[in-house]
Specification:
Blueprint: H1 2-16, H2 23-35, H3 41-57, H4 60-68, H5 72-82
Helix pairs in contact: 2-3, 2-4, 2-5
Length: about 80
């Protein structure tokens, strides 16, 4: 059990960075997947649940920056999803 916890923490660090510095990029990708409906309904539901804690962890300024990096309908849907 301990080795799996250690493995997961290492994977999170690789994905998110040691201080979660890549969290905005992860959020951007999730918004793109949701806006462009690139996943099935079950996966979209899970992604929507993932977005909420990410949204809570980021400042309003960072959320706005993420949204500004998106374009067109993706940006519009991300604004709705994130409430910015």
């Amino acid at each position: 059990m301990r080795s799996s916890v250690r493995w997961w923490r290492q994977k999170n660090t690789l994905l998110l960075g040691s201080d979660n510095g890549r969290l905005p990029q992860v959020l951007k990708v999730l918004c793109e997947v949701l806006a462009d409906e690139l996943a099935d309904k079950a996966t979209i539901g899970r992604i929507q649940k993932l977005v909420q804690p990410i949204k809570s962890a980021l400042s309003p300024q960072v959320l706005q920056t993420v949204v500004q990096q998106l374009e067109g309908k993706t940006q519009k849907k991300a604004k709705q999803l994130l409430g910015v």
